[in-house]
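Entry for the shared binder. Reason: the reviewer on the internal report wants the predicted structure included alongside the sequence.
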Amino acid sequence: MAGRALEPAYVLHARPYRESSLLLELLTAAHGRVGVVARGARRPRSPLRGLLRPFQPLLAAWSGRGELRTLAAAEPAGPPHALTGRALVAGLHLNALACVALAREDPHPELFAAYGGALAGLTCGDDLDTPLRRFELALLEALGYAPLLARDRDGHPVEPGSLYHYEPERGPARAHGAPGQGVRLHGATLLALARGTPLAGRARAEARALLRLLLEHHLGARQRRVRTLLEAVARPLAAGADREET
C-alpha cells in the first residue's frame, strides 16, 4: 500500500463522482497506474479544484486499499503542459493508451519518464509524430513486446536504403513481390525508430502505420477501447471550446 509520501504523478483521466468528487486514473513513477477518488475536489473552495487535470505534473499521495484509493494530498510539480489543437489530441491519445494498456499497480519508471518526455515534445515542437512514436515504443517495451527494429528477422543489420516487410510476430524482412500481411517500410524508418531520432517525410507515415499494426496486434480489443475512451474524453473538451467561442 502506498503511504502518504508525495510522489510524481500525472492525471490520465478524470470524471465526476457523486456530488463533489472526482474519480482519477493516475500514472505514477513508483506505483504505475493507480485509481483514486479525490473527495470534494469539485467544490468551489477546494484547493484541488482546477489542479487535477491532464498534463499537469503533480506530486500526489493517497491512502487505502483495494482497486480505488483515496487521494490524501496533491500539489503542482511544475507548470502544466499547454497542449492545444492537434497536440491536445495527441496528448489525449497517450492518456487513453496508458489507461487501457497498463494494469494497475504495475510500476514502470522508465515509461513514466517516457510519458513526461512525450508531453514535453508535444508542447515544444510542431513534430508530433516523433514523441508519439517514442512513447508507443516505450509502452510496447514495458509490456514485454519490444519490436525488432535495428536487425531483420534473420539477425542481419537493417540497411537504411532497403525496403522491408514487417510482420508483428516475425519482425522485418527484405520486401520481395506482393505484400502480404503486415506493413512495408524503409530501413531508414526502422533505424530512426530504433535510435529515437526525429521522424521526417515518408518516415512519419511509415512509422505511424507500423506502430498502429503493432499496437493492434498486441493489445487486441484493448486498442479499440483506446478509441472509445479518446472519443469520450474529447467530446466534453470540444463542447467546452464551443462555449468559450460563443
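Summary line for the report: The two ends are 47 Å apart (CA to CA).
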